[in-house]
Amino acid sequence: MSKSNSLTPLKMLLFSFHATNTIILSYLPLYLKYKGLNGTEIGWVLAVGPLASIVAQPFWGYMSDKYKTVKRILQICIVGLLITSVLFFQMDALIAILLMGAVFYFFVTPIGALGDSLAQRRADDLGVSFGTIRMWGSVGFATSSLVIGEILTRVGIQYMIIPYLFFGTIALIVTFRLTDVKVDSEPVQLKDVTTIIKSKPFVIFLLFIMLLSITHRANDSFMGLYIAQLGGSEGLVGLAWFVGVLTEAAVFATAGFWFRKYHPLIFIIIAGLLYSIRWLLYASIDNPMFIVALQFTHGLSFGLFYLASFSYVSRLIPKLLQSTGHLIFFATFFGLSGIIGSLAGGALIDTSGGGTLYFGMGILALAGTILLTIYHVLPYGKDLSAQKAD
């Protein structure tokens, strides 16, 4: 089987899953507003996903490492996504939305992490750039954000379940053609997982990048509402995501040419500076079209940040525990950060408006960048980052 053929199902999985992810990320806040929830209540619902992911990510990662399969775990999670999404979108009362949302997110949140973990391993096996595989997730996200945004503007936000199920079904179908990972070792034990948690540089690194990822996740949750506050439509929200994710895809696609030239932490620090500037610019504008215009900085900030963080974390984790380590990273990046970003962001956008929220995000990102710079400069951070734990 040729390289391109063996990677096609994986690229299609990333494309279709991230297409579903767009629908939740971009339009769920607007859908909940349509259901009658206010900003604080929307923040609570959006925090349920990250809360569920803190349990779900390590659990499914451990199951993947224990049974030495990413493919089967992906299939279980996608079937769960299809069944629970139908129930989730039928809920009207806040408590029912929160409870069903927790079950829904338990299956949904690990899919992106498992897909990326599989992509990282397949890239290593075949000697290709991880970014050239991962870019297909960004292409799916961008395509969906533009097309679905236009459709929902015309037919109404209440129909967002239909395109969600369409892309989810495609994701399930292509998993049957995936090439699974092969790990030649004894099955992983729970005690092995403690080696990751006890790694001080790994834990300190996660704490520092949280200051950046909190701002990233707050933007994920509230950019749509901020654009609406400034007078923009659902179509404009879709266009904003399209512009951002298109540049993200370009960063991933070209990673093979520039990424290995410097230490991953250098790229993370650059991304932190870009995040700080980006949020402060967002805070100062009063026309939603300026957000769309500035969204090209999403690809540069998130693209650099995600690639470099994922690469750096992969260096710190033994091969036996790659899925577990990657999903602990995801639980922090999208879980803890998402809870804080959703709850604090929801309260702040309700009481003080989007401008104040984005100004606070800019200051927080700057603090995280300074701490990561100190971490990189210290010999302690450098020494461990150079090790390969195999």
UniProtKB/TrEMBL annotation:
Pfam families: MFS_1_like (PF12832)
Thylakoid as UniProt keyword: no
A molecular function (GO) term: lactose binding
Domain of life: Bacteria
Membrane topology designation: Multi-pass membrane protein
Keyword Transmembrane: yes
PROSITE patterns: MFS (PS50850)
A GO cellular component entry from the record: plasma membrane
Primary localization class, coarse: membrane
Keywords tagged on the record: Cell inner membrane, Cell membrane, Membrane, Transmembrane, Transmembrane helix, Transport
Chain ranges of the Major facilitator superfamily (MFS) profile domain: 161-390
InterPro entries: HcaT-like, MFS_assoc_dom, MFS_dom, MFS_trans_sf
Residue stretches spanning the membrane: 12-30, 42-61, 95-114, 126-149, 161-179, 200-218, 238-258, 265-285, 291-313, 325-349, 355-378
SUPFAM superfamilies reported for this sequence: MFS general substrate transporter (SSF103473)
Compartments, as annotated in UniProt: Cell inner membrane
Protein name: MFS transporter
Organism, as annotated: Virgibacillus indicus
